[in-house]
What does this fold into?
Amino acid sequence: NRRKRCKNDNFKLILKNKLIIKNNFNFFSKIDYKYSFVLAVFGQAPRLVGNEWTRVPHWRANATLTYHTTPHWDNIVALQYRSNQHIRADNTDTNQAVYGGSSEYVLVNIKSDFKMDVGHDTTAKFSVGIDNLLDEEYYDFHPYPQRTFFASIGLDI
It folds into this structure.
């Protein structure tokens, strides 16, 4: 039975503003700092005491800016950041940019949404966008997709 106890130090800051410039912009951001480490291990791995907890990055940040071009058309830019994190319990992972690793990343995503009323309480929705606009190469046990283009069409009935 390998039970562990850990300690977490956390700080979170969330900013949300709906009226930045001429009431056409929405802004949301979140910054999260966490430091987790092993206090005690019950079992056969006392060498893990004092190590950082696995799969917990120190920093995470997200920011989204939405421009409401018209009441039916939104354009969105989103930014995501995650710092490195340890995958191995002994914290000996040194190369995060490989299979089995977990890398630091900064992602920029863009999207444009359009919706229109087609009658009878039905709304048609159209979206196009690009995920990972800057073509960042990053891993979380496996490589994630690089730049990805997408389009979608939907109907709310």
About this structure: The mean pLDDT is 87. The CA atoms of residues 117 and 142 lie 42 Å apart.
